[in-house]
Structures
1.
Amino acid sequence: MIHVLLVSREKTVFKELEAAFADIKITFDWTNSAQNALSMLSKEKFDLFITEEQLPDTTGRDLIEKILFKNAMMDSVVLSALSHDDFHEAYEGLGVLMQFPLVPGKKQARDLLDHLNRIARIASRTSKPKGEQI
Amino acid sequence: MMKSGRIAVPSNGQGGLDGTRAGHFGHCDVFTFVDVEDGEIKEVSILQNQEHAQGGCMVPVNLLSDNRVTALIVGGIGMRPLMGFKQVGIDVYHDDQRAEIEPVVKDLIAGNLAEITNDQVCGGGGGQI
């Protein structure tokens, strides 16, 4: 079961995305501010959060930074209208999994699952006892 | 001064103490491991890096943690992996001037290399050496 926190000014932006995940074991919680998001993340276990770039009390980027300071393992996705290059410039040091359009839907749900599975496959190959002596 | 531990250096090609450092730790070919005991280099080994995926910053964090690394030397690093390394107990040191592995390793052991600070993180391609 994947637990996802959605952060946006209006819940409706995630309507299609939630519907696309209806048949998959993913649970969603939603909040409309960074402050609430930080509070929820401190109380419950989430695997991923998806945020808008602009929130009522701060930016999505600022929220990601605050979360990373507490838990760098938390994956993030950002809804953004930036070009690919501008998004890369603005966010890559923060290790954002993916850029979604402002209203994500079925395609993004499929892409996200594929990407999470790819990272899981890579991660499963990482545990090795020791380096090769040279 | 570093008395004991395992240093990891993102490296080009085959790595090794006489090799060169890679500018982006997530995309390096191998990690050169230097085991230190009593302030001396005891053993040098290498570990192949894993495939890099966008947002997969925690893969190298877990890889180095699983391999008992205690210190990492980078030319640049993003905020997420830096926080990740700190949170798993790996100290991250910074040198963006020298391409060679051996002098920066010796400086770290001698206590002459500074830990990277949060305001030195980069966004994207990592630092240059």
Note: Chain A touches chain B through 34 residues (CB under 8 Å).
2.
Amino acid sequence: MDKSRTASIRRTKIAKSTAFYLGNIIIGVIFVSPLLWMIAASFKPENDVFANMTSILTFIPVNFTAGNYVEVFQRLNIPQILGNTFLYIGLTLVGDLIFGSMCGYALAKLKFRGRGLILTIIIALSSMPVEAILLPLYIEMTQLGWVNTLAGLVFPFMMNCFSIYMFYSNFLDVPDALREAASLDGCGAFRTFISVIMPISKTTYATVFILDFIARWNDFMWPFLVTTGADKRTVQLAVQSFFGTNPVHYGAIMAALTLASLPMLAIYIFMQKYYVQGIAATGIKG
Amino acid sequence: MARKDASIQRVTYNRGEKVTGALMSLPAIILLIAFLIIPIVYTIFYSLFQYQVVRPDSMEFIGLENYLEVFQTEEFYVALRNTFYFTVLVVPIQCVLALCLALLVRSRRRGVSIFRTMYFAPQVTSMVVIAVLWTVLYNSNANTGLINALLSTFGAGPVNFLGDPDVAMNAIIFMSAWQGAGYQMMIFLAGLQGIPEEQYEAASIDGAGRWAQFRYVTLPGLANTTKYVLMITIIQAMKLFTQPYIMTKGGPQNATRTLVYYIYEEGFQSGNFGFACAIATVFFVLVVIISLIVKKLTRTK
């Protein structure tokens, strides 16, 4: 394509953009085909789920039905599952955003005893695999009587070294002149943080919010270990156990999977800018 | 510069700052100690004990015996090998796939965000959803498994994807790379946007073709991004648990039992807490060593 540079630039442009759209449509459709099949199957009657597997018709719910969704709502306590999940995510996030940003700010801008040590520990632990410490953490929960409680789900993840580090590195860039101006106005360090620093750092908060939300939403192992009763289940646990519960209806399973994808999809659509920025920011900051 | 600023601050803020700084970091520090430092210490502590969950009163100090046992257990080496096999294969596949996708959708053409969303879509669901879905897609029967149905139209298969010990881990690798690539694609996209357009113009004036531009402009421009992507993908891969738990329960014949899965089985299912903590400590040390090695290797480049 490059060789025809001297010929008609316009023709190359059209050829290039045709190649771009055609290539992406073909690759993109193949890429998402498992998800398309999932959605299609969720609208098929049970007898049709595995019909026409070798033809393109398998991606089309010919005998369209919403019955699978009705079945999911009948067999699962959806409001409770969603409630558990959003309580879990919401409370961990509130803790992480408030405590994390306070700590990050103190480390970045305030001089106090032990600051260097704390910073070193937080950086060292920010990429630690929690999987390595889940056993004693579980024992700790039994000793506190927190197994199968909201507290047991939430507290261990209310603090996240990586979030503190994200806040810390972002607050480092805040000009000191701002703080000085606030202090001349008679603001103490904490007031300055609340009324000056927080409002101008919305992007940082949105970034940490999104990253944390993704992590908590996807988390399977900790909720799986610490909750024992069906009434404390999160979305991921409900999906996993629904898969193994009789009667196994594949149409209903696909409906449950589709439903379980909707909340994150909504977050992605409404917060796309921050979502993408958040992921990208880890690459730049890290 | 920073030094100088610091000395000015010390004059202006000093006293109140000391207290406020400590107070502001206190809640996070308490949580950090309670739910991270204490469990870390206890992981090492328990690993030195004979400790069965069902008999907490008969805890007995046995020194390094758990570790000796870990290193003499065949199953540990199987789990170690599975973890490395997964990591060594999934990391390059997923990263190269992510880079290719990022290059496909780096253009600013109208509608490009639709394609970005398509490649990112598996990420927007969750690993649990994807693992359940692919367990169905991987069904060994060509009449019920979409992938075997596809193979059968080419006259191939059926392959017992999750039931054949030689295939199961590869099946998980393929699925995981597909699910995860969108995330790294986003990071690569940000990296690509950081490469100045002039560099491409200069290269094309010098007569560099597509490949040469990629080789001498794009790749060096992405060096830092690549290092970061490699690091997170490796650590992520070493923690593999959800996929084998949902899809294969560690089987067939332990072919997908990873280190984290082994920790879970020994600790939570068999109740050998001391022994499981020893594996966990070894796992933790391994992750630290490997991330240090990766850091060192990518730094010299």
Note: Chain A has a mean pLDDT of 88.
